[in-house]
Specification:
Blueprint lengths: L6 H30 L5 E6 L1 E23 L5 E6 L6 E2 L4 E5 L2 H57 L5 H55 L1 E3 L4 E3 L9 E2 L7 E16 H10 L3 H10 L1 E5 L10 E11 L4 E8 L11 E18 L4 E3 L2 E7 L5 E12 L2 E6 L6 E5 L11 E4 L7
Parallel strand pairs: 1-19
Antiparallel strand pairs: 1-18, 2-9, 2-13, 3-5, 3-8, 4-7, 5-6, 7-9, 9-12, 10-11, 10-13, 11-12, 13-17, 14-15, 15-16, 15-18, 16-17
Helix pairs in contact: 2-3
Amino acid sequence: MKAALPARCWTVVTVCAVASILLAASGCANGTSAANTPPPPGVEVVQVQQKDVPIYGEWIGTLDGLVNADIKAQVSGYLLKQGYTEGSFVQKGQLLFEIDPRPFQAAVDQAQGQLAQATGGLAQAKAQLAQAEAQVTVAEANQHRAQLDEDRYIPLAKQEAITQQDLDNATQNNLAAKAQVQAAKAGVETARAQIAAANASVEAARAAVSTAQLNLGFTRLISPIDGIAGMAQQQVGALVSPAGGPVTTVSTLDPIKVYFTVSEQEYLDFNRRFPTQASRDAETGRLPLQLILADGTVYAHTGKFFFADRQVDQTTGAIRLAGLFPNTGNILRPGQYGRVRASTRTHAGALLVPQRAVTELQGTYQVAVVDAANKVDIRTVKPGDRVDTLWIIDDGLKAGERVVAEGVQKVGPGMAVNPLPFAEGKGR
């Protein structure tokens, strides 16, 4: 049996044991707390960029042919022949359709016959005029001889070298000769009137021939331009007339025209920046247009401004513009839709952040800014124009600051984060 320890020794042992237990308990508690503290969340950040950027406008566009020629019948008749392949390229002057020409050829022949008859009548009237003028010449010669006889007989009658009867006969012969001259001259005037009437008949006959030949020419429906011919709206054997619609349409597609509308505010802003016609013409002349097709691809060729409409549409408050785009191979066709884009101005010293870095809450826009200590500051900003996937911030940020571009939903004010480089497009 072991000897008992003094009371003081038991006290020391008890204190040491309690201290050991407390130390062990404290060590266990600290280890557990450290193990339960989560690390700062990882977020992707990007620096605020500052640079001059072009500001683009984008508008819905409708494609149309530069020239669209409706091919319509100018005379009534039955389609006899189709001379082109639908959807093919046709040349100016190429036959597209032919209307039965026989009735119109008959009208030409009849008009030419009437012209020949009128021409013959004119020749006859001219011959009659020549005859009447000859009769005037003969009558004037006869009257001149009669006048000489009368003048010669008057002094002889005074000298009683001849009888009074001889003088009276000479006087009567002179009067009769004068009457014949007047009658001959009246015949000339009549002949001239007949020539005028014959000339009118000839001109009317010539006009009838021209009209008949023109109508005969209208039986050949030809293309007035080089372009792509559309579907035939009438088939061979159909009766067509000027009152009907077009039998087909030919469009010039290279270059192709694109209509688009801009708001009145955009139009006024452009004119304020370029107040003179010369400055506007220079700007629109150098301004390249881009065409974004229906599948989202950008058309390979840039276009140029063509014209602006004369008025603003009162119902929409927009003005219609047109641009021209090269269309080699006729890939683009009338009726297609696309988006026309153009750089309307340059924003100098713009502050840019990814659009996904900006969140909107009840009309207020915010970004999460990460400071040098990797702490988050939720800041209200004023966004401006958008440039591709970036957003211009007009107020609330400075160049070089870091903003959260991915993981915004994980952060809050004052939170510590683990900033990572923003990998745009990764898994997005």
